[in-house]
Write a structure and sequence with these properties.
This protein is about 75% helix and about 0% strand. It is mainly α and about 140 residues long.
């Protein structure tokens, strides 16, 4: 077993849990509240719904290993948006009232890694789309 694959699956599942919990929090806290906050910082309120769904569904997809590269790109774009629209102005470690962008930057780095490398170990994609598995089944 390749050690980089073990690292990738750890990153994938951890990132999936983090985004799932953040997306779930947006639903539990009321998407209308999140949409209102988005509007208050100059973003269209409907983006709150888009972000919440991508975080929730994307988190699940990462946990089970489905469309890891695509989901990672989408989550990475959310992190870039969060950093540049909210967090950059409060600094790397924050300003005492709000957290800085250090955590968002770490999440962005993880999404970039998974977007570039993917993650095959314990991934649903491997079960559904792995050509080697299909060829083995056909010859058996």
């Amino acid at each position: 077993m390749n050690t980089s694959e073990i690292g990738a699956v750890i990153l994938r599942i951890t990132l999936g849990i983090i985004f799932f919990v953040h997306g779930l929090g947006k639903f539990q806290g009321g998407l209308e509240n999140t949409a209102g906050w988005f509007s208050s910082i100059g973003l269209p309120g409907f983006l709150a719904y888009v972000v919440a769904v991508i975080e929730l569904v994307g988190g699940i997809a990462l946990i089970i290993g489905f469309a890891t590269r695509i989901v990672s790109i989408l989550l990475g774009l959310i992190m870039v948006g969060a950093i540049f629209t909210v967090k950059l102005s409060v600094g790397f470690t924050g300003n005492g009232e709000m957290a800085g962008y250090e955590f968002d930057l770490a999440l962005l780095a993880m999404t970039i890694y998974l977007a570039v490398s993917g993650s095959k170990l314990f991934a649903l994609d491997q079960v559904l789309f792995n050509k080697e598995n299909k060829e083995l089944k056909e010859t058996a």
